[in-house]
Amino acid sequence: MRVSQKLEYACRAMTQLAKHADGKTITRLDEVAKRESVSANFLVQILNDLRRSGLVTSKRGKLGGYLLSGKAEDISLYDIVLAVEPTLLEDTTTSEGESGAAVRKTWQLTSAALTESLTKTKLSSLVESDDGPMFYI
């Protein structure tokens, strides 16, 4: 499956915000960009999409930054997809031709399964599955 760079970065940024989520700790843009090796200029555009969707809030100024608007266990990957790549799950198939209806039905079922999986996968599970760096002695 091909995931856009924008969607990948949005998930990574949201995971960073979730790691530091206590409802009041603001994470600066440059911190997220550095931790995730992402361009701050591109990341600010993505975070603005997430803010417009109500998934994050922002604070301006020298001590400004971003924080989750809700709990990580209440935010799904589906929410993130809708915020930054809303056309990803659109049905673009047609029922034309002899096989069109069968092909369309198959893609609709596949899309429904993906939507269900994205809805069930919560941001908190990305934080929990992040094992961090491995150190060997």
TrEMBL record:
* UniProt entry tagged with the keyword DNA-binding: yes
- Does the record carry DNA-binding as a key word? yes
Domain of life (superkingdom): Bacteria
Q: Quote the InterPro entries the UniProt record gives.
A: TR_Rrf2-type_CS, Tscrpt_reg_Rrf2, WH-like_DNA-bd_sf, WH_DNA-bd_sf
| Keywords annotated in UniProt | DNA-binding
Question: Which Pfam families does the record cross-reference, listed alphabetically?
Answer: Rrf2 (PF02082)
Q: Which NCBIfam families match?
A: rrf2_super
Record-given protein name: RrF2 family transcriptional regulator
Q: Which organism is it from?
A: Rubritalea spongiae
